[in-house]
Amino acid sequence: MYELSHSLRKNKNELLWLACVALTDQFVHERLTDERYQAGVMELEQHINSSGNLDAVTSVTLKDGTKVTVPDSSRISYEDEPRLMLLQEWNLFDSMLCSSYIATKLKTWSDNGLKKMQLLLARMGFAREECKQKFQYMSVEIKHRMKDMFEQYLPEFGLTDFYYRGFLLLHGYSSKISAADVVYGVTALLESSVESDGSSGSKQFGIAYDALSLNKLDKLETGMRQAIKVQRAVLRQGSTAITKKGSIRSGSKFRWVKLEDSADTKLLCHPQALTKFGYFLMDALREKGARMKPLICVCYTQEQKKVLIVGICGKPRLGAVQGNAFGIAFRSAAEETGAEYFHELFESSWIVLETVAVNSFMIRLTEKLL
């Protein structure tokens, strides 16, 4: 879409920023390969450079007479970002504890994993009390040293691809927003207080759309706080599923897990939230050396007589030529069972089904994959 506006010479910073958010959404939700993401990043970086974003500064004088350079309008930048979810809105300790990348590699839900994370922070010279402060109130010195310390010590803990190229929207020195944080916040708003069958979605869409504007930062912050709640629920339920024997059942063609009714069900009974939970489990199982298979996640909806079922094939691979046989079988079994099949992606699909029909769906899916 941005390429079209660029060719028509109607390209504006607002559209360029939305293009950055859109690409980041694909990356964050694991809908494209790392190679394709990097190609997209390079293309957008060229547009950012050519649009003059990096040079859009002017000089202003403060009350004490000091002259400083401040951007006179919103500008887009890019830099290496850590795989830490919502760090600007959270604190370093909890962001490391709950972010899927570090949590699945260090197993932060276990005592041993938590000790490893605390040891990492100690090796970097970051006091625990400092790391538990909201990030914006942390010591400036620690923030400046953070990247160098991470790059020095993370490889010792098997964390070798911690940074990725990300995008930032800046306005003066009062506002700095990561495209990834926008994705997390807007996604949480889209699914907040929405039934898993999509009802009330139009209202939430309007709120989420408003959150994309810098003039409605309060709405985006609301979404970010909701996203943090969802991620905590992912960690709690994910650690339970991994450590509790028999929680994850494995067949010859796929695994499946059912979330028991709990306080977290309300947070995870939405398609994207349950998909995020599924990817968390797949990453954790991969770190344990388990063979990769598609995963079925089952969760009660807010209507107790129905369940939301999400089928996840895994992150796309560069050069993959085999079709999505699991996705085709998933849809066919859903149709035969009479499920409400209301969304389909290349890597995941989801349906709403009567609770009593779950076993029938599983049997049909198994038969179609034989």
From TrEMBL:
InterPro entries: CDC45. The keyword Repressor does not apply. GO terms for biological process: cell division; DNA replication initiation; double-strand break repair via break-induced replication; mitotic DNA replication preinitiation complex assembly. One of its GO terms (cellular component) is DNA replication preinitiation complex. Keywords: Cell cycle, Cell division, DNA replication, Nucleus. The keyword Nucleus applies. GO terms for molecular function: chromatin binding; DNA replication origin binding; single-stranded DNA binding. Pfam families: CDC45. It comes from the Eukaryota. It is found in: Nucleus. Belongs to the CDC45 family. This is Cell division control protein 45. It comes from Sesamum angolense. The lineage of its organism: Eukaryota, Viridiplantae, Streptophyta, Embryophyta, Tracheophyta.
